[in-house]
Automatic annotation (TrEMBL):
SMART domains: PQQ
Ranges for domain Pyrrolo-quinoline quinone repeat: 52-157, 221-406
UniProt entry tagged with the keyword Oxidoreductase: no
InterPro entries, sorted: PQQ_b-propeller_rpt, PQQ_rpt_dom, Quinoprotein_ADH-like_sf, WD40/YVTN_repeat-like_dom_sf
Pfam families xrefs: PQQ, PQQ_2
Name assigned to this protein: Pyrrolo-quinoline quinone repeat domain-containing protein
Residues spanning the membrane: 432-450
Entry keyword set: Membrane, Signal, Transmembrane, Transmembrane helix
Signal sequence bounds: 1-28
Length: 457
């Protein structure tokens, strides 16, 4: 009888302890080396970890940067204040809080125990350089948030830095590309690119980095060879008057996709265009109009994403979400909605995008049919959603990062507010503590029973 009791207690202990042991496994990827993780900008990662329950990570100010999940940490920075945060991705516990000298629109990319983040603002100096007050990039220890080094630039570093083969690269509002030593911030190379880069986060594809720029006119898209440290090619867009320098390009199958605004035939409203270019030559392969509409403030041109040989993009000008064939530029379908600016994300045949009304919309990637939606708080632009282990993460201008399982999109009839859901699940961190205490008690009880049994013998 005693053997059965001990066996039963041991089994119960294992059942209770197992979730604790598995929770220590890495939830996110080991590295995050560029904007939205991959060149196609479809920020999806899966290592078969269980999805998280709804969770809220509270910061100090607006979030306009995409949250980054590496291992068991979530990293994100704030727009106006430059606050930088790391959270336990599972419990929502704040692990550290640091500070950048200016706005943070950049992602906090991760490599080898360090996070790298750009800072700066959108205001212009009298000499035409974009970014006032202090601008630059900094490296922090990912474990405790200690600032390891800071490299200052003349113009803003609002685009996300990129890491490649032992170097950190930034493009700036002072019309230069900088190559830095990630260990100490030492300048390794400085290249005059001739264009101001505002939010066009550089995209690393094979051995080249790609980004869009603005003034001085004409707007220009650049490719920079990372092996030779020289400009590979530059393509001019003489009809573009806005957006090319704001859009992080997406790249797949040797094709670059970006968007920008040109003047419509009426001479008043902008026309939103999408362009596909060859990665080797910069030749424009196709150009398609998304339509004409009213101008919007900031982030005027939508950011594309590539998934299964299709380009998905939302237009803030036409308030419409589109799917195009990557190779031909043929429009496959469109879905009218609200102003949207952020890059979308797709998984398992469903594409998700966020709008400025606080909704994340789920569509069938083949047909464009609505499959679900989720109401959050605040404006969700320009922070696009990412998916890690069937869990969606998205930053809001209400200062929170929201996380919730993709299964929430099947509950659209109730349209539960994520904030309320997060309150229901706010005991996640406490539950781990309770489980740990119970496990210890069970182990102690088993040890005492075994000790009594040995004494009787």
């Amino acid at each position: 009888m005693k053997k059965k009791v001990i066996t039963c207690l041991c089994t119960m202990a294992l059942i209770v302890i197992f979730p604790i042991l598995t929770s220590a496994e890495s939830f996110g990827p080991d590295e995050w080396n560029q904007y939205r993780l991959k060149s196609d900008k479809n920020a999806v990662f899966n290592n078969d970890s269980e999805p998280l329950n709804s969770q809220t990570y509270q910061t100090k100010d607006q979030i306009r940067a995409t949250p980054v999940v590496v291992g068991n940490k979530l990293f994100v920075g704030n727009h106006n204040t430059g606050d930088l945060f790391a959270f336990d991705v599972r419990t929502g516990e704040e692990l550290w809080h640091s500070q950048a000298p200016n706005w943070v629109h950049s992602e906090m990319i991760y490599h080898d125990g360090k996070v790298f983040v750009g800072f700066g603002n959108r205001y212009f100096q009298e000499n035409g350089i974009r970014g006032t007050e202090e601008s630059g990039v900094m490296a922090l220890d990912a474990e405790d948030g200690e600032v390891l080094w800071k490299f200052n630039t003349e113009g803003e570093v609002m685009p996300t830095p990129a890491y490649y083969d032992g170097s950190v690269y930034i493009v700036t509002g002072d019309r230069h590309l900088y190559k830095l030593n990630p260990e100490n911030g030492e300048l390794l190379h400085k290249e005059d690119i001739g264009s101001t880069v505002s939010m066009s986060a550089p995209n690393i594809y094979e051995d080249t980095i790609y980004f869009g720029g603005s003034g001085p006119l004409p707007y220009t898209f650049s490719a920079y060879n990372l092996q030779t440290d020289e400009i590979k090619w530059q393509t001019e867009f003489p009809d573009v008057f806005s957006g090319l320098d704001d859009v992080p390009p997406a790249i797949a199958n040797g094709i670059i996709v970006t968007t920008a605004l040109e003047k419509a035939d009426d001479g008043e409203n902008p026309e939103h265009f999408m362009y596909a270019m060859d990665v080797e030559s910069g030749e424009i392969l196709w150009k398609e109009s998304l339509g004409v509409g009213e101008m919007v403030k900031n982030n005027k041109s939508g950011a594309p994403m590539i998934y299964e040989d299709k380009v998905f993009v939302g237009s803030p000008i036409t308030k419409t979400f589109y799917a195009y064939d990557l190779k031909t530029g043929e429009k496959l379908w469109q879905f009218e909605n609200e102003v949207m600016k952020a890059p979308p994300v797709a998984q398992d045949g469903v594409v998700y995008f966020a709008n400025t009304k606080g909704y994340v919309i789920a569509l069938d990637a083949e047909t464009g049919e609505l499959t679900g939606k989720k109401k959050l708080n605040g404006k969700l632009s320009p922070s696009g959603p990412i998916i890690i282990n069937d869990t969606m993460f998205i930053g809001s201008q209400d200062s929170n990062v929201y996380a919730f399982p993709l299964t929430d999109f099947t509950q659209t009839s109730s349209e539960k507010n994520t904030q309320n859901a997060s309150k229901d699940d706010s005991g996640n961190g406490t539950s781990y503590i309770i489980i740990g205490i119970l496990a210890v008690i069970l182990i102690v009880l088993i040890a005492l029973m075994l000790r009594k049994r040995s004494r009787k013998r």
